[in-house]
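Worked example 4.2. Below are the chains of a multi-component assembly; read each line carefully before continuing.
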Amino acid sequence: MSIRARVLEALSEVYDPELDEPITSLGFVTSCAVSPGGDVEILLRLPTPQCAPNFAYLMAADARNVVRRLPDVGRIEVRLEDHYTGEEINAAVARGEGFTGAFPGETDDDQLDALRDLFQRKALVARQARLCEEMLAHGATPEQVTARRVVDLPDVPDARRCLELRGQLGIDCEPDSPAFVAPNGEPVATGELTRWLRKARLVRTSLDVNGSICRSLLQIRSRRGAELEEVGT
Amino acid sequence: MYSHNGDSYFVVDGHLHFWDASPANWVSGQEQYAKGWIECFHAYMGLGPPETHWPIEKFQKYSEEDFVKDVFEDGCVDVGIFQPTYLKEWYTDGFNTLEKNAVLVEKYPDRLIANGRWDPREGEAGLRQLEEDAKSHNLQGVKLYTAEWYQGSRGWSLKDPESQRFLEKCQELGIKNIHVHKGPTIWPLDKDAFDVSDVDYVATNFPELNFIVEHVGLPRIEDFCFMATQEPNVYAGLAVVIGGLMHARPRFFAKVMGELLFWVGEDKMLWASDYAIWEPRWQVEGFVDWTSPEDVEFSDYPRLTTDGKKKILGLNAAKLYGIDVPEALRIPDEAGTPAAREDAQLVDSA
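Applying the procedure described above to all two chains together yields the following structure tokens:
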């Protein structure tokens, strides 16, 4: 596998923390170039120049971190393009600094852990909702659903991502631990399932809608960019 | 008034702008932000039907004639409510000030309402200004931007002690509708401007005031819904929901509407076009025509009836603003579906 292929593979593990989708499938990676000497240059473009700097920082920093772990990679440059705080974020990421390095004096939250944690819990809830609905649709009773263990989960992307998130959040994901948990990691009781699911669906809808708006805006941005280039040349 | 299939709708547009974002109004040294802001709005316009898109030049600054045609004539809006957006750090005369809106209100006093604004960071001077504005413009409402920049500060919270003084002042001045921008925003940094917990806090402390959460807390609708379920004086402002989703993402639109109808209820939802981000006409037409898809995915959402649409398109806002609705356009009071109050307990474990 070429270095570039490995870099792209690594980037597919970087998630938009707000949308819980890989930045590669969201179309945020606009270019990835590897020099003969192994230097890597990655360009990221978000749906609008005004996407929230905190999430923008997390994606840029995560991108650098996953690539840094690869062998045979030289210098790494990750750049947010056309973002109104791109300069600050790019410089901080290049120096290996945290969020406060990008915006000294404007924030005292260096690693944005609480933000990441909050959205990982939302993502977990949303993904579980899909798995749970699937089981109910196939005739499982609430008792059966809440009795399911991690080992019973199907081998599908949502389930794999749930376990990844549980691992990152420090929620038990041993094979015999409950398949479905509340945001705090507690198992879902049978009597609570309907309410839990109702809430979880709302969280999922919120993430889906958010993601769809981002995708639409990114499309509009690329289209207009292309039009401008045509006009300009 | 909008009529369709024998039904007539009294239309109140809860969120209108009359802005000037043309380069002549950009603050020197802040051009990139002024330009970025309006371009960002313009991208949102792209989520509406193609035939309603404007070129950026017109979008930066549109005329009074455009406004009257798009809103009153084509848009069928009976009464419109202006929400000001100052952004004086970026726009020399402000992006869309109360003063600018008031010029139009003077010409169309029965059709337009101008809301004011305040910012707790302006302290005593801000309180005095609010009193003056309330007096000269007979304010019934304000629009608040908790994410707005001000002298090096990049946001504030309704929970701030200073905010309490302004809310008390609103109460004293009879300003009872507090519109809070909780939606797509510009500089949340670590202070999460989408966070609606500050609305939760003041809605409890000021039960006589109404809090209209503009853009329903998008992109965090769930936080908004859980909160609105618990607070009887919290309303959903649908600007962006209809404009941003109904055309571009109809299935997601149906889901968001279903969720809002379930959690918040049709008595507490207010339509708004967010003009000039989107023209009102296609939104009113589309919404009156709209029905939820029949698939099982949508089966347990409450259904929206013609009466429900009448409330959302105008009657709910008319109630909040004391707008007199012609007898023939009213509906009997008790026809509403209450919001999912029994689900409030659901939120306790959130």
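Take a moment to check your reading of the output against the notes. Chain B is about 40% helix and 10% strand. The longest helix of chain B spans residues 306-321.
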